Every structure is written in structure tokens, then in C-alpha cells.
Amino acid sequence: MTALPKIILQAAEKHYSSPQGEDVVALAPVTLEIASGEFVCLVGPSGCGKTTLINLMAGFEKTSSGTVTIDGRAVTGTDPDHIMIFQEYGLYPWRTVLGNVLFALEAKGLKGKEAVEKAREYVDLVGLTKSIDSFPHQLSGGMKQRVAIARALAVEPSVIFLDEPFGALDAFTRMYLQDELLRLWQEKRPTVVFVTHDLDEAVYLGGRVVLMAPGPGRVQRVINIPLPWPRERTGESIDKYRRELFEEFHLVHQQAAGEAEYII
């Protein structure tokens, strides 16, 4: 018996009302299936609906029409089993590294020695044992994001949504955290949906890359990248998929520019 996909979007659509009362289509109907344990990247230019789409899956917004289900249940709001990690780290400044990870466990009902031991395990997992008693203002951006990842993993969610989590980091820290995220994903195997505007990042991380286009936001193409992890960042095999994605992205850019010119 074939297992059902973990996440199913069926003609999921999102509309807003403009200040003038006009109907604005932010996201055209999207139909997409994501398997359990899959690592999927959403990529595309600004205004293509990446964040809207991930917010629908995470339960921060509701569809205007169509459905979003996870594990066969309709997404009607946020769920502690489905965690979102943002570019803004969302750490509590009055709590240490350990305290921030502990907070997630306490919110889930885990207390005392068991909670502390588990929090320490995940702090160690992201390589921050030496900084376990540091406060957020004492950490670099990359270290703060590792705390956010540890906090998310500690509650053992089945789905992790990430909305451009490395966008504000320098190139070296970004590459380091990409590798760390892949290592943790391979070890724990949650389902990961990762939003990025960086095409290289999408090709390096994703088992599939969902390329989106604007006007209105929609899925342009889904590209499978059947390369094993860990991957080389350069080389003939990955360059093939990079070229394919860049060529498709160029078409999206041309279409968007043409539509804008037509509107003007």
C-alpha cells in the first residue's frame, strides 16, 4: 500500500482585498504534493507568492479556495508539530541559549531534568555547547540561527518550514548552516519546506525545487534533483540542474518584465 503524501495542496488559492476594495490574486491555484521526509525548496522572484504559499501550509493564513492538508487533516491554523523558522531568529533576549531551547520544550509540557537534558542534547547537536549560557546579544547571526534550529528540532516536529532563514547571513556562514541543516535533516528526517530567493541554495539543498512566478503568484515548474547528499557545490552533475533552473528562472523574469511593460 502506497503511503499518502505528507502535505497536499489541492487548487490552494489566496486572494486579498486592496485598500480600494478590489480583489487581488496573491496566489493562483496551486496543486502540489510533498512526501514525508522530503526536502523541498520554494524559489522565485519577489512577489511570486513563496511566503504566501508557505504561510498557507504552516497555518498562518487560510486559503481563499482549495485545500491544504497535512497527514490527511485540513490545515486550519498553526500546529506544534509543524514548526516555522524565520529569517528573524525570534529568540528571547532574557533567556540563554539553553533557556531558549528549553522554552520550546516547556511549551510542549516537558519539565524538569528531562527537559534540561533534552535541551542540552540539541544545543550540542548544533555545536553550541560552549555558548550554552550565553544570551542572544552575545551571539553572532549564524549562532542565533543555530539556536533557532535547535529549538525547532528539540520538539521533534514532523514538518519544519523555513522562510529565507539564511538570507541575512554572510556567504561563509550561510554555506556552513546549509551543511548543518542538511546534516540535521538527514539525522532526524522531518519533512522540510525551505523558501529562498537564492537559486544556488535551492539546487544545493532541495530534492525538488518548486520554481514560482509572479503576476499572480503561481508554480511555474517543479524540478527534480536526484543527487545524493552530501553534494558538491560545483561539478558537472549539480551544474546541470543549476543551468536548468537558471534558464527557467530567466524565462520567468522575461515574462514578468513583459507583463509589467504591457501594464504600463
Question: Can you offer a commentary on this structure?
Answer:
This protein is of the alpha/beta class and 264 residues long. Helix content is 38%, strand content 25%. The chain is built from seven helices and ten strands. It has a six-stranded mixed beta sheet, sandwiched between helices. The protein has a four-stranded antiparallel beta sheet with strand order 2-1-4-5, covered by helices on one side. Helix 3 packs across helix 4 and helix 4 packs parallel to helix 5. The relative contact order is 0.17.
- Overall geometry comes to globular
- Give helix % range: 25-40%
Q: β content, as a range? A: 15-25%
Rg over CA atoms, rounded to whole Å, is 19 Å
Strand/helix succession: EEEHEEEHHHEHEHEEH
Distance between the termini: 54 Å
Structural topology:
Elements: E1 7-17, E2 23-34, E3 39-43, H1 50-58, E4 65-70, E5 73-74, E6 82-86, H2 97-107, H3 112-125, H4 141-154, E7 159-163, H5 171-188, E8 191-196, H6 199-205, E9 208-213, E10 218-224, H7 236-263
Parallel strand pairs: 3-8, 3-9, 6-7, 7-8
Antiparallel strand pairs: 1-2, 1-4, 4-5, 9-10
Helix pairs in contact: 2-3, 2-4, 3-4, 4-5, 6-7
Give a brief outline of the structure.
Helices cover 38% and strands 25% of the residues. The chain has helices at 50-58, 97-107, 112-125, 141-154, 171-188, 199-205, 236-263, and strands spanning 7-17, 23-34, 39-43, 65-70, 73-74, 82-86, 159-163, 191-196, 208-213, 218-224.
What are the salient characteristics of this protein?
single chain; 264 residues; alpha/beta; six-stranded mixed sheet; four-stranded antiparallel sheet; 38% helix; 25% strand; disordered C terminus
